[in-house]
Amino acid sequence: MEKELSKAERTRQFIIERTSSVFNKKGYAGTSMSDLTEATGLSKGSIYGNFKNKEEVAAEVFEYNSGKVRKQILERIARATSYHDKLMVYAQVYHSFTRGDFIPGGCPILNTAVDADDTNPMLKDKAAKAVIRWKNSIENLIKAGIEAGELKPGIKTTETALSIIALIEGGIMISKVTDSPANLDIVLGSVQQLVDTLKL
């Protein structure tokens, strides 16, 4: 049975949910306290009564946003019937980035990595851990696919995983700056070709 949240926990969750798209669109530096009070309808005192500072809100929001993406990916992977199709889930989920079926503002990992850079070590670390978790997930799928006899033996798992991530995130960045979803489609087509080469 799910534990009932306390009033303080519910308020924290409310703040996280209501500010999730603000941070993802504007970034940490670009999000002001007035943005947070406007998004939540709460006073500055109420927000700081639940979080130490803006950085703590941003950190929790990143976990919330990246968790939503991860949940969608894991659900689709669980439904996919082959390891090829499981690997293609990443391209399919991120394809929806330009189709309105994604977190407002786009990929939270890319946004946070670019926004935090060297100016916010805590957020940079969170983005780095998310990328490593993503890399490990792809590597594990490839290894399982090889063991199942569906994918070619001898695949360089780390290089392949990082290439898939780089293509997806690079495609998102290019489509955002050019305002062209077609550019993301082209890059995701390259992801498909890469995954296709892994099949036996």
UniProtKB/TrEMBL annotation:
<feature type="DNA-binding region" description="H-T-H motif">
    <location>
        <begin position="32"/>
        <end position="51"/>
    </location>
</feature>
<dbReference type="GO" id="GO:0003677">
    <property type="term" value="F:DNA binding"/>
</dbReference>
<dbReference type="Pfam" id="PF00440">
    <property type="entry name" value="TetR_N"/>
</dbReference>
<keyword id="KW-0238">DNA-binding</keyword>
<keyword id="KW-0804">Transcription</keyword>
<feature type="domain" description="HTH tetR-type">
    <location>
        <begin position="9"/>
        <end position="69"/>
    </location>
</feature>
<dbReference type="Pfam" id="PF16925">
    <property type="entry name" value="TetR_C_13"/>
</dbReference>
<dbReference type="InterPro" id="IPR036271">
    <property type="entry name" value="Tet_transcr_reg_TetR-rel_C_sf"/>
</dbReference>
<dbReference type="InterPro" id="IPR001647">
    <property type="entry name" value="HTH_TetR"/>
</dbReference>
<dbReference type="InterPro" id="IPR011075">
    <property type="entry name" value="TetR_C"/>
</dbReference>
<protein>
    <submittedName>
        <fullName>TetR family transcriptional regulator</fullName>
    </submittedName>
</protein>
<keyword id="KW-0805">Transcription regulation</keyword>
<dbReference type="InterPro" id="IPR009057">
    <property type="entry name" value="Homeodomain-like_sf"/>
</dbReference>
